[in-house]
Amino acid sequence: MDLTGGRLNVIAEEGEQQDFSRQSSTMEAYRAVPEPGERTFQRFSVNTNESLRFEPCEDSCPSPTGAEDGHDDVFDKGEYEDEIISIRNQLQGKVTEMENFAGHLEEIFLTVEENFGRREQHLEQHYNDVLQTLSQRYDERASGLQEEKKAKLESLYSQLLVCGQALDASKELIETAQEIYRCQDKRLFLKTVMPTIKRVEEFAKEDVDLALSTGLEFSTPIADLSDVKTMMDSINIVPAPSAPVINPQLPNSATQTSLHVCWSLFSDDTVEYYELYYRPVLEDVSAENTFAPQESKIKVKETHCTVTDLLPNAQYELWVTATNTTGISPASEKALYMTVPSPPVIKQRECSSCPEAALIRWESGNTNPVDSYTVELSETGTGGAKSNITESIVAVPTCQCMIQLQAGRHYLIFVRAVNVGGPSDRSEPISISTTGTFFYLLEDTAHPCLSMSEDGFTIFYGDEELPITAMAFEDNTFTRCVAILGDLIPVRGRHYWEVEVDDETEFRVGVAYKDADRDSYLGANNSSWCMRHIRTPSRHKYEFLHNGWSPDLRITAHPLRIGVALDYDRGTLSFFNANLEQHLHTFHCHFQNYVHPCFSLDNPGALTLHNGIAAPDYAFI
Amino acid sequence: MEHHKGGGGFSDVMTLNGLRLSRSVLRLVGELTKLKKLTLCLSKPEESLRSAMALTQVSSNKCAGGFQKVFEHESTELKCKMKFAIYLPPKAETDKCPVFYWLSGLTCTEQNFITKAGSQLAAAEQGIIIVAPDTSPRGCNIEGEDESWDFGTGAGFYVDATQEPWKTNYRMYSYVTDELPKLINANFPTDPDRMSISGHSMGGHGALICALKNPGKYKAVSAFAPICNPVQCPWGQKAFTGYLGSDRSTWEAYDATVLAGSYSGPQLDILIDQGRDDQFLSASQLLPDNLIAVCSEKKIPVVFRLQPGYDHSYFFIYSFMNDHIKHHAKYLNA
What we know:
- Chain A: Residues 244-343, 344-437 form the Fibronectin type-III domain.
- Chain A: This is Fibronectin type III and SPRY domain containing 2.
- Chain A: Pfam families: fn3 (PF00041), SPRY (PF00622).
- The radius of gyration of chain A is 54 Å and the shape is elongated.
- Chain A is 30% helix and 27% strand.
- Chain A has four domains: 83-204, no CATH class; 245-282 and 294-338, Immunoglobulin-like; 345-434, Immunoglobulin-like, CATH 2.60.40.10; 441-610, Jelly Rolls (Sandwich).
- Chain A has helices spanning 2-21, 27-31, 38-46, 48-53, 64-74, 78-182, 186-205, 226-236, and strands at residues 245-246, 259-264, 273-280, 296-300, 304-307, 315-323, 335-338, 345-346, 352-354, 357-363, 372-380, 391-396, 400-404, 410-419, 422-423, 430-433, 441-442, 450-452, 458-461, 483-486, 494-500, 507-513, 528-535, 540-546, 552-555, 561-567, 572-577, 582-588, 595-601, 605-610.
- The longest helix of chain A has 105 residues, at 78-182.
- Chain A has a seven-stranded antiparallel beta sheet with strand order 18-19-30-21-26-27-28, with no helix packed on it.
- In chain A, a hairpin with a 4-residue loop joins strand 27 and strand 28.
- Chain B has a single domain (57-333), classed as Alpha/Beta hydrolase fold, catalytic domain (Rossmann fold, 3-Layer(aba) Sandwich).
- Chain B has helices at residues 2-43, 46-52, 110-116, 120-126, 172-187, 202-213, 234-244, 248-251, 256-261, 279-282, 288-298, 314-332; strands spanning 55-63, 66-75, 80-88, 97-103, 129-133, 190-200, 221-224, 270-275, 302-307.
- In chain B, strands 1-2-3-5-4-6-7-8-9 form a nine-stranded mixed beta sheet, with helices on both faces.
- Classes of the chains: A alpha+beta, B alpha/beta.
- The A-B interface holds A 539, 551-557, 577, 580-585, 617-618, 621 and B 267, 269, 271, 276, 292, 295-296, 299-308, 326-327, 329-330, 333-334.
- Strand 25 (552-555) of chain A pairs antiparallel with strand 9 of chain B, so a sheet runs across the interface.
C-alpha cells in the first residue's frame, strides 16, 4: 500500500509541475526535486506556493510567514491566484481519486489472493481424495488375486495327490501281476490269475483324470474407474452451492407494483445463477379456497432482483435458490415482502378550510387496509412556483386530517398511504388558500326539491312541484324546509362567507347545529339561527330568526349579497349587506357545538354561495 | 492632608467663579426663553384667535381609562357662553382620534348624555372622542325662551333661526356643524377628517339633517328615536314656525325625510333604534315610517330596529349605545 501511495503521489506531483510550468519561471528550482518522496509530496500538496518559494529538497520545514511572503512575491497578480487555486484543488481531487483507486485495487488483490488460497486448498483436498481411492482399489484388487492364487494351488495339489494314489495302485497291481507270473505252481497260478486279470481289467477301465482341474489364467475383471474419473473431473468443478440467505425487506425498496429483493450467498459458493420464486400471500385463504396462488420464478445472475408487475399494498412470499454447473442449492428461507400502497385519492368536495386550518379528507385508494397516511404540504409562492415540502404530518391513522395553517397563504397538500413496504406515491394535490373560509355543501342534507349547480355552489328550487311520493327522504335530509347545510370546518375561530340572491328570492341563510331538526324550518327551533327574506306584495321583509322569534327591524336597501360572519370566540353571528358594507343584525349566542352554514329557499328561486373570500375588516368589529 | 488643604483653597475660588458663571448663564437662558415666546406669539396670528376660542374647564373626571370633561366657551355663533362635554379616550393621550358628535334631545343639557348613556367604555375601547354639546343657547334673555319645554331654551332644534327674536342666538345648526368642530379640532388631539354624528329624539333629527345636508362630512350617522319628519309633527311644526317662520318651504331644509328624498352624495349607512313602547312614537311625533319609505325608495341604506318594550328614555339609549358606537367605529376606524 505504501508503495502504491508513493507512486500516486509522484503522479500527482508531475501533474502539478506541468500546470505550474506555464506560470512561473522559478520552476527551474522546482524541477530540481531529486527524489520526490512522501514527505516532499505532502508539502506540495498542502501549499503549492510555498514549494515554489523554497528549495523543495530542503528538509527544514518552511515557516508560515515565509509562505505568505512567497505568495506575495510570486502571485502579486491576483488574477492567477484563483486559477492556481482551482488547479491545485483539481489536482488534490485527482490525488484523492487515485488513492481511492489504489485502495480499491489492493482490496481486489487481497480477494484474489484469498480466493487462490482457497482454491489451492480445495484442489489439494480433491487430489488426496483421488489418491486415497486409488490405493484403496489397489489393495482390494491385490488381495483378490491372492485369494484366487491360493485356491488354484490348493486344487492342483489335491489333484496331484489323487494322481499319486492312482500311480501307487497301478504299481501295486503290476507287482501283483508280476508275482503271479513268476509263480511256478500252475494250480495256484490258475487260481489267482483270474481275479487279478479282473482287477487289471477293472483298473484299466478306471480312467485317471489327468486334465488340470483349474485354469492357469487369472480372471482380471475390468477395473471400474468411473468413480475415480468423476472425482478427477470434479476437481475442476465446484460443489453445488448451499442455500442463499434472503434479506428482510429494506425500507423504501418497494414501489406500488415492484419489490427490490436482495439475498446473499456463502462466500465459498460459486453460483451461476439464482432463481427467485414469489407468490402473493392471501390473507383470507379460507378452507374452501383450495386454490393456492401460483408461484412465479425469475432467473437472475445478481444477488438482487426487482420483481415487477405486482399488486399494490400486497404481501408476497419470496425465496431463492442458487444454481451452478454442479447443482441446485436448497431453497432459502421464505421472506415476506410488501408492495407499497396505491396513492390515496383526496376527496376534493369533502375538504374544507379556513384561515387557520384545513380539513383534508381522502379515500384510501387501496382495497385492503394500510398502516397509516402521511400528509405533506408545501407552500406555493405568489408566482405559483412550487417550493419544497414545508411540513409533513405522519402516522395519520384515519382518512382525514386537520392541518394547522397560516392565514393568507397558498398551499398544495398531498397524501401518501404508508405500509411496512414504505410510502406510496403522492396523491393528486389539493390546493388550499387560507384567505377565507371555504366549504362545500352537504348534498346528503339537501331537501329533495333542491338541485345544485355543477360547481356545487348554487342551489335551485325548481318551479314544478314534486309529488310527495317522488321525494326520496333520507335520514339526513331536510324534509320540511327546502334547505341544505354547508360543511364548515370544525375550527372555533372566525368564519365569513357570502350569499348572493336576487331581489325576489325568498330565502333563509344562517347557521344550524349539525343535528338541527330536519322537520322544521330554519330559525324556528333553538338549534338554528338565520336571516329570512319575505317578499310581500308591498315590501321586502327581513327577519332574523332563532327559536321562532325575530327582532322587528326594517332594512331600506335590499341586500342582494349577504355577508355572514361567525365568531365562535365572541359568540356572534352577524349579517351584512356586503355590497354596502352595512351591518344588518348580530345574534349573540355561545355556540356550544360546531355549527354548519345553512341555506334554504322558501319559494322557487336560486341562491349562490361565495366562499373562500377574505373577511372584510368590518365583519368582526 | 497639608497638600490637600492648599489645593482646597484653590478649588474654593474655582467654585465661586463657577457659581457666578452658572448664575449668569441661567439668566441668559431665561432671557432667551422670553424672547422665543415673544417671537412665537408674533409669528402666529392664530394664537390670538385661540384666545378668542379660549376654553374654560368646568369639570374633569377620570372615566373608563380616559377623562370625561366639561368645558365652557364663548360662542361666536350663539353669542353666549356655551358648555359642551367631551370624553377623551386613553388613546387620545398618544394619538389623534376620530370624533363622535352627540346631539341630545329636548330639555337636555350636555350632562344627560354623559351621565346616563353609558357610552364611555365603548368609546375607550374604540378610541373615539365623544363631544356632546348643549341643546340650545342659554341665558340670552330672549322673551319667551323659558316658557315651554319644547321651544326656546333646551329646544334649539339644530336650525339656524331666521325669525326675530331668535335669529341672533338660535343658530344651533351652524354651531354644531361649524363652530364646535373647529373649536374641538383646535384644542384636542382629533383627526378632523374622521367625524360622525348621532343623537336622540330632537338630537336624532339634528344628527340626520347634519349628515344629509353635508354629504361626506360625517363618516357615519345613527339615531335613537329621531324626529324623522318634523314638518309633519306637532313638535317640529311649533319649533319651525317659531324659528323659521310660517313659510313651510323653508322648513324642508331641516327635515330629514325631505332631505333624504333629494340626497345625493357618498353612500350613507344609517342605524336607527326606536323603542316600540315610546309614547312619542304613538303620538306621531317621530314618524320613522315616513323616513323609511323615502329611504327605501331612494335606496338609502337604513337599518331601523323597533325594540320591543323600550320607551323614549335614556334607559333605552343605554341599552343600545354599544351597537351605535360600534356602528360609528366601523366607519371612523376604517
